Description:
The protein is an alpha/beta fold. About 30% of the residues lie in helices and about 20% in strands. The chain has helices at about 10-25, 65-70, 100-105, 115-125, 135-160, 195-205, 215-220, 235-240, 285, 315-330, 345-355, and strands at about 5-10, 30, 45, 50-55, 60-65, 85-90, 90-95, 190, 210, 230, 250-260, 270, 280, 295-300, 310, 335. It has a seven-stranded mixed beta sheet with strand order 7-6-12-13-14-11-15. The protein has a five-stranded parallel beta sheet with strand order 9-2-1-10-16, with helices on one face. Strands 3-4 form a two-stranded antiparallel sheet. It is globular. The two termini are about 25 Å apart. The model has no long low-confidence stretch (mean pLDDT about 95).
Amino acid sequence: MKVDFIVVGAGLAGCTVSERIATQLNKRVLLVEQRNHIGGNTYDHYNDAGILVQKYGPHIFHTNSKEVWEYLSLFTEWNGYIHRVIANVNGKEVYLPISMDTMERLYEREFTAEELKRFFEKWKIKLDKITNAKDIVISQVGEELYELFFKNYTKKQWGVYPDELDPQVTNRLSVRLNRDTRYFTDKYQGIPIHGYTKMFEKMLDNRNIHILLNTDYKEIRDYVKFDRLIFTGPIDYFFDYVHGKLPYRSLDFRFETLDIEKFQNAAVVNYPNNHDYTRITEFKHFYFQKHVKTTICYEYPKAEGDPYYPIPKPEFQEIYQKYKIEAEKLKNVYFIGRLAEYSYLNMDQVVLKALDLF
């Protein structure tokens, strides 16, 4: 078999670059995917109850990039969903990120913007140097809110407390002096109106693209002739772990379908301080689906399993840099995406990187 490109991984990066190559260059692409479906971690499907669910946890698309939004809009309409996240703390439901609304619910009193600003000024801790993820939080909102919202949630999510992690974990912490309860403030946001999988199917509906599911590319690479390879999987796996294995945090998902129309007041509710799970997702909120039943998902972080989150610790970045040097030596092989770059990337960042690579 002869193709122009092998693309490994049918997630956002792999599907985007495959579509561009096949459509714009009229080149033949072999898209190889280990799982039994396209779409990567954004894959969604109808379960046995007829409810549209996301198999790998909540994914809401948001971006300020007009280029990325207009590109994906070639393959889908958007449903206008605006994401709001509730945190269950001290027996109360409050919105994240921390805003005036959050503080008023938490402390059962009203604030003006100026009062709230003084409140944070009084509580935040002045540090000479930011060295870890805890420092980011306490330098903005102080110890009490750090304990309530971040300390134990981070321990569950990452297996270590924030003071053991790189500042990037909480670097995007948003504190608002207004009543904006949206989780994201990007100009463009929503979910594909018929789901992510339908969007990917349209992207890959091209005679130049041949898809191999349930396939490890190492099983077929010696039997396929190709000019270039684009790899979106774990970079350490590509190089047979020659510099050691890069660690990731993984997740377990436990789904339940309930004989009620609604389970909770938002699509996602976080549980920072109680229960072993970090959050519960109720998918009907995403798709505005009408149904007499509802499906929810409990999310349990763990150390082993499918790789989801690169662990932001300096010693692991040192390992990745060794692999990056190996990658740069290769001709006609390109590495892109969260696993290939060992970096936490938002969905829009992945798409933009794929467009830039094309």
